[in-house]
Amino acid sequence: MIVETLRVFVTVTEQRNFSRAAELLNLSQPGVSLHIRNLENEYGAKLMHRSPKLVKLTEAGDILYKRAKQILALAEEAKQEIQLLNEKVTGSLQIGASFTIGEYILPRVLAEFAVQFPEVEMSVTIANTEEITQALKANTLDLGIVEGNVVSSGMLITPYMKDEMILIASAEHPLASKKNVKPELLQDLTWVLRENGSGTRSFSEQFIQAAGLAMKRSYVFNSSQGVKEAVSAGLGIAILSRWIVKKELESGELCQIPVTPKLLERNFWIIRNHDHSSSMAVNMFLQKLLLSKS
Question: Domain HTH lysR-type spans what residues (predicted)?
C-alpha cells in the first residue's frame, strides 16, 4: 500500500538513517531500502543522497516529504472517521512520562482509560524530561507528560496541573524539629539530587542557586525512589514533589522542612511533537488527562 511506503520514506527522512528507521518500523534494513527504491522508480527521480552516516533529501525528495506528511495525516483522519462509524476507539498509544508523573499520577489515569477504551493498546516509557522530549522529536512517542521546563522548538506544550515541591529530611535530621527554617540554615549541608536532565534536578538547582547556598556534598540518584531511600537513611536533604513522599510523610518516615518563604509550585506539562499526527486514541487520552486534573 502506498501509504505504508510513504510512512517508511518519512521515517527514514526524519531519522536520517536507514537502520534507525528499520528499527522503529520493525522492518529489516533491506526491506526499508526496497520501499525507497520502489518510490524512486515510481516517481522516476532520485529522492535521497545516501552515505553510511547520513541520509539527505534531494530536491525531489524534499517535495515528496512535504506531500507525504500531508497524505499520511489525511490517511490517519480517514482512519479515525471510519473508526467513529463503529463508535470504537482502537489502535495504539505510546506515552512518555517523567518519573513523578509516571510513577505516582499516570497509573490511575491509565486504569480509568483502559476500562473506557479496552481496545487501545498502551505502552508507557518513564524517563526524565530531556529523554522524553528527545523521544517525541524522534516520533517514537505520541505524547509526553513532564515536570521540567521544555525549551525545544517544534513542541506543542499544554499546561497539565500544578505540583507542590517540598524540602524533606529524615525524622532524625537536626532541622526536622524546627518550625521555621530560613534558607541560611541550609548552608553547607549534604544534598541528595536527581540526575541531570530531570525536572526535579532543575527545580532543586534553581532553589539552591537563588538562595545562594553552598553544598557540603551531594549525592545523585536517577530515580525518585532512590532519593527517598537515601534521605530516609540520613544521607542528606532533598527537594521532591509532595506526590512522591505523601505516604512517607504520613507514616513519619520522612518529614517536611518548613522553609520560609515556601518553595514555589512547578507546572506539569503535556507535550507533543508539532509534526506528529494524532490518532483518535491520542485525542481521547488527551481529553482524559485534562479532565483528570480537575
Answer: 1-58
Residues 128 and 247 in one domain: no
Read off the CATH number of the domain in which 12 is found: 1.10.10.10
Question: What is the amino acid identity at position 125?
Answer: T
> Helix, strand or coil for residue 124?
strand
pLDDT in the model for residue 41: 92
The predicted-structure confidence for 217-242, as pLDDT tens digits, reads as follows 999 999 999 999 999 999 999 999 99
Q: Same structural domain for residues 174 and 234? A: yes
| Block residue for cell numbers 517523567 | 98
CB-CB contact of 63 with 1 (8 Å) = no
- Owning domain of residue 171: 163-265
Whether this prediction's pTM lies above 0.85 is answered by: no
Pair 126, 78: CB distance under 8 Å: no
Provide the domain count of the chain: 3
Q: Extract the C-alpha cell encoding 253.
A: 518516615
> 63 vs 13, 46, 59, 60, 276, CA distance in Å?
12, 12, 7, 5, 18
Contact 272, 156 (CB under 8 A): yes
Q: What is the pLDDT of residues 242-282, one digit of tens each?
A: 999 999 999 999 999 999 888 878 889 999 998 887 788 89
Angle, helices 280-292 vs 106-116, to 10°: value is 130
Nearest CA to 263 out of 240, 246, 245, 244 is that of 240
Residue type for position 188? D
Residue 149, all three cell numbers = 521546563
Cβ atoms within 10 Å, residue 95: 24
Question: Which amino acid type is present at position 127?
Answer: A
